[in-house]
Write a structure and sequence with these properties.
Layout lengths: L1 E6 L7 E5 L4 E5 L6 H8 L8 E4 L2 E2 L5 H7 E4 L21 H11 L16 H13 L5 E5 L7 H16 L3 E5 L3 H7 L2 E4 L13
Length: 205
Amino acid sequence: MLRVETLKVDPLPPLSFNVADGECLAIEGPSGSGKTRLLRAIADLDDAPGHVFLDGAERRELQAPEWRLRVRYVSSEPAWWTATAREAFDFAHPEMASRLDRSIAALALKTAILDNPLSTLSTGERQRLALVRAMIDEPRVLLLDEPSTGLDPQTAALVEELIRFQMLAGRSVILASHDQGQIGRLAHARLQLARPLPVRGGARQ
């Protein structure tokens, strides 16, 4: 189980909630309400006061790389640091090739795409490959920021099916999405973030 206690991410009040194994929590709110900042704080990518526990272990009890192996953030605009997608995967792992083939096929991609320069791929292809990259080593928690933005309905349905498979395998998912249909199909619970009030000038009271 992932447990968040009084986690403070600007401009939000301290937040506390749990996400059980195999369940999805949807984070809802307008642009600027703090959805991405909240996900990044849970992943320990940005510093934020408060506590995040996974199976009883607090994030600061682990080295940051170890925490991020277990709690994985996937940006809506994922970055790559390699020339091809293949270079981002560790084929020393004995099951990597078979896992990768299955995951690629599940998202209607061909294995050959792994060797194409990432700069030549479409945004949707890079987005799907980033989901595969995030899930391939089976993290305990997935933090998904608008995982199907820009995808056609058929491809978005494949992404949702892959997310469901992760939940069936016992992984917790936190999903930030503007897609109410997607939230309705995947989420077991919802956390609504309000748009922050504008700061008005004038004297302090």
